[in-house]
Amino acid sequence: MSRINLTDLISEKVKNLKAYQVEDVKEGIKLHANENPYPTSPEFTKIILDYLKNLDLNRYPDPDCKNLKKAISNIIKSPTNQLIIGNGSDELIQNLMQVFCDEGDTVAFPDPTFAMYYIIAKGMGLKVETYPLNNEWDFNAKQLLKHLHSNKARLVFISYPNNPTGNCFSRKEIQELIESYQGIVVLDEAYYDFSGLTFLDQMQDHNNLVILRSLSKIGLAGLRVGYGIFPRELVDEINKVRMPYNSNSISQIAAAELLKNFSLVQNQIDSIKNERDRLLKELSKMKSITAFPSDSNFILFKVANNGEKLFYDLMENGVLIRNLGSHPMLNNCLRVTIGTKYENDQFLELLTQASQ
User: Fold this and answer.
1) Is the pLDDT confidence value at 1 over 80?
2) Which of 90, 148, 151, 220 could form an SS bridge with 215, CB 3.0 to 4.6 Å?
3) How many helices (H) and strands (E) does the chain have?
4) Are residues 223 and 301 in the same domain?
C-alpha cells in the first residue's frame, strides 16, 4: 500500500486559497444564490421533454453550439462568429485569464465584487490588484486607470450590475475606462436582464471590450449556461483554451429553446423586478436597516449591528440569505435574492421580528 504526504504535493497557490462558500439548507426559503425563484413553466418543460425523447445521449454534443449561438444572435443582434458558449460564465473568465496572462501577470477589479475573479486568478498563479469602491459603491475612472497602469494589469473585470452591491457603476466612468485602458475590459453583464443596461453597442468601436452574459439568473442555473461576446480576432484564441464539448447537449437545447420562447421567462423577470422595488420600499421603512439601490435580482442591506446573528436567526427560521460580513467593507451587510411574493413576505416578517 502506498501512503504519501499529499499536502506536500499541493501547489502553494492553491493551499492559500479559500473555496467559494455556498451555504445551503435542505428545507426552507432559499434567497441566497441569486437564482430565479420561479419553476420552469409547463410549456417550456414540455418543449424540452419532447427534445429529450429523440436525443442521442451516447453522442458528444455539438462542439460549436451552433443552434444556441444562432438563438443568442437573433436576440442580441451580434454575429455568431463573435459568440463563445461557456459552462457558466465562470469558465469564460478563466479562459480570458489563460489567453491574456502568464503566471505572475496581473488582473484587476474593483472591490467588493464577484469573488470568483479573485479565486480563479489566484488559482492560476496570477497577481490580483483591487481598487476600493467609494461610499456610493462606484469608482473614478481616472484613478482606476492610474492603478491599472502602475500595476501593469492585463485585464480588468467590471461586474455590471455589480455583485454583491447590486448597482450599475457610472456609465460615464466605464466609458472612459474602455476608451483609455490599454488592456482588456471585461464587462460581466450576468444581471443584464434585470438592469436593461449594456455596453453591447460599444463593441463595434472598441476591440478591447468583452461582454459576458449568463442564463443562470433567469431560470437555467441548474444547466450552467453562460456566453461571451468577443472581438472577432479573439474568438480563435479563446477557443484554443476552451475545453472541447464544454457545453452539454441538454444545456444547449434548453438554452436555445428558452431564448426562442423568451416570453415564457420575461413575465418572471418582470415579477422579480416588481418584487425588488417592493422589497426595497419595505426595507427602507425599517430604522435599523440601510438598503442599497439595486439594478439586479438581489438587494444588499446593512443592519445597525450584529449582522451575523441576524443571518443565523433567519436561517434557523427557514430563510437562507447571504452573509457578507467577513469582507472589511461589508461589515454587518447581508444580501437577499428576490424571491416570490410569498417568500419575500416571509423574509420581511422574520426580518422585522429579528431586528426589533
Assistant:
1) no
2) 220
3) 13, 13
4) no
pLDDT by residue (tens digit) across 306-354?
A: 899 999 999 999 999 999 999 999 999 999 999 999 999 999 999 998 7
Helices (H), 16-170: 42-52, 66-76, 89-100, 115-123, 141-150
The SS3 of residue 31 is coil
Number of domains into which the chain is organized: 2
pLDDT score for 25: 61
Which cell is 72 given? 443568442
The CATH number covering residue 91 comes to 3.40.640.10
d(Cα 355, Cα 153) in Å, to the nearest integer? 43
Q: Say if 191 falls within a structural domain.
A: yes
C-alpha 255/C-alpha 244 separation (Å) is 18
Domain housing 161 = 56-260
Look at residues 225, 260, 295 and tell me which one is the last residue of a structural domain.
260
- Give the pLDDT score at 259: 94
- Domain of 24, CATH number, reads 3.90.1150.10
Picking from 244, 260, 276, the residue at the C-terminal end of a domain is 260
Q: Domain check: are 217 and 273 in the same one?
A: no
For 319, residues 6+ apart whose C-beta sits below 8 A from its C-beta are 28, 29, 31, 346, 347, 350
Percent of the chain with pLDDT over 70: 95
CA dihedral 326, 273, 212, 71 (to 10 degrees): 150
Q: Are the beta carbons of 157 and 190 closer than 8 angstroms?
A: no
Residue 47 within any structural domain of the chain: no
pLDDT in tens, 38-47: 998 888 888 8
